[in-house]
Amino acid sequence: FLVQHFTRFTMEIFALLISLIFIYEVFRDLFLTFEEHPLITVEEYCGGGSGNMSYVEDEMDELLNQPNTALLSTILMLGTFSIAYSLRMFRSSRFLGRRGRHLLGDFGVPIAIAAMVLLDFMMEDTYTRKLSIPSGIQPTSPDKRGWFINPIGTKQSIEIWLIFATCVPAVLVFILLFMETLITGMIVNKKENRLKKGAGYHLDMFIIGLMVCVSSLLGLPWACAATVRSVSHLGSLKVWSKTHAPGEKPKVVEIKEQRVTNVSVNILIGVSLLMQPILQRVPYAVLFGVFLYMGVCSLQGIQLFERIIMFLKPPKHFPDVRFVSRVRLMKIHLFTAIQLLCLAVLWTVKSTDAALAFPFFLILLVPLRLKVLNHIFSDSELYELDNEEVMVDEMNDKEGDEYTEAHMPF
């Protein structure tokens, strides 16, 4: 029932919020790295200082006050982002053949990670914080708990009333999982994808509910839809028309709908547990670069972000899209301002002690769009501003880009 009421208005506010969180967290963690490992003077580096060269261990046995750590972390982060983003843009260049460009573009992130991990490996004298990967398949803290989490209480039994009270935050968490799964399902099941099998929204939620229940009993992370990976997988299964006229965009002929590739991908993800010695050499700064890449790339597929940029452009430089010519400029900016206000409210709620109520505020965007905006804008204006019109040329490539199509970095 709720599927039909989730429009681009709601999804793009949520998508822009996620993208901004990715970008903000990257620079926040980088700032913390500079606080824990401040830059030192040449005299201190050469041994004339008072002790920045000697390390200090915190409660988590992490080294502090290490020379050049913050500088190398910055290089690794920006290097990972630059390589991955450059290879992504390489897809729309005129070098190599189409297949070669796509191969480099699709594997841009792994190439960037491998290059920066190699650079970090060569800098043996400089400390960088690495991933903490448990050895083998075991709980995160085997000294504190086993595999099974007693829902009645681990050390002592909880009160009966508390069991029913947890239903309130459980509903709020369900809203988040519902939103992520719903948005992914709507993107994958677009009409232009020509899928033959049914959508299965209810079946998806039922399966995720079962997985969350099992994960909770085992103390595992909750599963949710992987938007970018789903769109990327869908794109790899598309068959495009080859009989189109010159200058005409190819169309999707069919999707090779099967389960073999999906099962294979998840099996390979599980096999990555055997790569512990390799994963333990990956610095956190490299992951910061990947997150920055994901956040920046996803911005290019969000119409709200494009309309924010329109505040700073003269009308003659506006994108060539339908709503620009059919909706007054004042109404376009008003619609954008309302979305920015909603975004600011969600960010404020997320950043305060009221973060538990974030899903509730998120779901309120639906009645706001349905019951309030129709008193401010006409039906034709809402149709033009809130439809699925694409504002980007999808990198001048017929297959587009998974971040542009997914509108989200995850």
Q: Helical region count? A: 19
In the sheet with the most strands, the strands line up as 1-2
Mean pLDDT: 78
Major beta-sheet overview = 2 strands, antiparallel
What general outline do the C-alpha atoms trace?
Answer: globular
Radius of gyration over all CA atoms, rounded: 24 Å
Helix and strand sequence: HHEEHHHHHHHEEHHHHHHHHHH
Report the end-to-end length measured between terminal Cα atoms. Answer: 25 Å
**Class by SSE composition:** mainly alpha
How many β-strand stretches? 4
Percent of residues in helices comes to 55-70%
Portion in strands: under 5%
Spans with pLDDT under 50 lasting ≥5 residues? Answer: 48-60, 392-398
Fill in the keyword field for this structure.
4 strands, mainly alpha, two-stranded antiparallel sheet, 19 helices, single chain
Can you put this structure into words, describing what you see?
- This protein is mainly alpha-helical.
- Helix content is 56%, strand content 3%.
- Helix 1 (8-36) packs antiparallel against helix 3, helix 1 packs antiparallel against helix 12 (284-299) and helix 7 runs parallel beside helix 9 (227-236).
- It is globular.
Layout: helices, strands, pairs:
Layout: H1 8-36, H2 42-45, E1 56-57, E2 63-64, H3 69-90, H4 98-106, H5 108-122, H6 160-165, H7 167-188, H8 201-218, H9 227-236, E3 238-240, E4 252-255, H10 260-271, H11 276-279, H12 284-299, H13 303-309, H14 322-326, H15 329-351, H16 358-363, H17 365-372, H18 379-385, H19 402-406
Antiparallel strand pairs: 1-2, 3-4
